Amino acid sequence: MTSTQTSVQTSVHTLIVGAGPAGILAAFYAAAAGPVLVVDRFTLPRDKSCGGMIHPLSQQIFAEMGVQMPGRLLLEPDTVYFRYNDWDHQYRYDTKLSFGNVDRKPFDEWMISLIADKAEVWDACSYVGHEETADGRLRVTLDARGEQRVVICDWLVGADGSRSRVRRALGLAPFDCYLTVQDFCLRTGPVDAVFDCFWTGEVPDLAIGYVIPKNERALVGLIYYPGTKRPTEQQDRALDILRQRLNLGESIKREGWSALKHRSAKDIVAGAGRVLMAGEAGGFLSPTSGEGISWAMDSGRSAGRAIAAGGSPECVQATHKRGTDHLRRMIAWRLRIYPLMTSRRGKSLFRLAPKPLIERLTRRI
Ligand SMILES: Cc1cc2nc3c(=O)[nH]c(=O)nc-3n(C[C@H](O)[C@H](O)[C@H](O)COP(=O)(O)OP(=O)(O)OC[C@H]3O[C@@H](n4cnc5c(N)ncnc54)[C@H](O)[C@@H]3O)c2cc1C
């Protein structure tokens, strides 16, 4: 533990680390069982790099919560269909899968408002570590701008994203991470009103890229395999290549981030003892597309509901595991097909596949 100034001690039923979609959903549902505290290391609302594509399953979860995403969050075009684009073979496939088109920061801010009457939120406050108390609860150490705070809780939810510290505290290995670079580009002409996912061998180390129109701009995101050297130089070259095909002008904002890459289905962990994992921290994210908001919400809801249902740690863990089994199965299946999907043979097979099969495969990308 680092040297400290003051120590503030608080007691809550549930402490949630991370105010992303997983943490918000966990808080929303766990509040039924007792006081909830959510902490996030960033000042909120945070500025997370994201494509801002909202899957219909997220909308379904909002409906179940009794809320609707406000229209003011939607950009122009407000809905975009997912299109797969293999540029090297000039193969393009338009799917029927549509996404809500938002900017992530106002979306996150609205999501935090959903727990205003359900949880206390401390921002700029980092989880440092935890230990079990003599009476079987958890003693969690936090760092709030250099001030140490101690929180005693019955349940701890690790919803702290791809570089989760709670995960490491459980003795689990950190994930491999893709490197992501996003540019917000001015447009020099029209950009197709689709969520245009592309692949091309012209950009080395590229897992997948996307172009999404956002009001008068176009968001260009590229996801590079772990270990990619000098990703910003790669990105500059990629933008030059893209500009030859699309109406993309100057980049007015660039951001870099990371996204988890599963090594195997064993990376998916629902938790242990009084600690429940949700969202990317638990490995809940689509390994084939990197779409993660609906997966984070789904697994966060499961953690919150398990806590609300109550019982012994074994019982709560079993409830959360059951609540996330469908996600685990979907991820395991995607991990099995991923090597084929990204191989030359797989790309050729995809071009020959019948349309109904592609529609099925892309229903939850
Ligand atoms: C470039 C990019 C584009 C993406 N585009 C999309 C998209 O268009 N659609 C989609 O569905 N998904 C997208 N994703 C994935 C999606 O953003 C994530 O999967 C989703 O945000 C995961 O939610 P989460 O709640 O698990 O974690 P996060 O949203 O990552 O939230 C975790 C929170 O934990 C906090 N935290 C971390 N460590 C600590 C600590 N020690 N103490 C306290 N707080 C801590 C962080 O500050 C953060 O706010 C994208 C990801 C990237 C990188």
Strand and helix layout:
Layout: E1 7-17, H1 21-30, E2 36-39, E3 53-54, H2 56-65, E4 74-86, E5 91-102, H3 104-113, E6 120-122, E7 125-132, E8 138-144, E9 147-158, H4 165-169, E10 176-187, E11 194-199, E12 206-214, E13 217-224, H5 231-245, E14 248-261, E15 271-272, E16 275-277, H6 293-309, H7 313-341, H8 344-352, H9 355-361
Helix pairs in contact: 1-6, 2-6, 6-7
Write up this protein.
A hairpin with a 2-residue loop joins strand 8 and strand 9 (147-158). The chain has helices at 21-30, 56-65, 104-113, 165-169, 231-245, 293-309, 313-341, 344-352, 355-361, and strands at 7-17, 36-39, 53-54, 74-86, 91-102, 120-122, 125-132, 138-144, 147-158, 176-187, 194-199, 206-214, 217-224, 248-261, 271-272, 275-277. The radius of gyration is 21 Å and the shape is globular. It contains nine helices and 16 strands. The chain is an alpha/beta fold. Bound molecules: flavin-adenine dinucleotide. Flavin-adenine dinucleotide binds next to helix 1, strand 7, strand 10, strand 14 and helix 6.
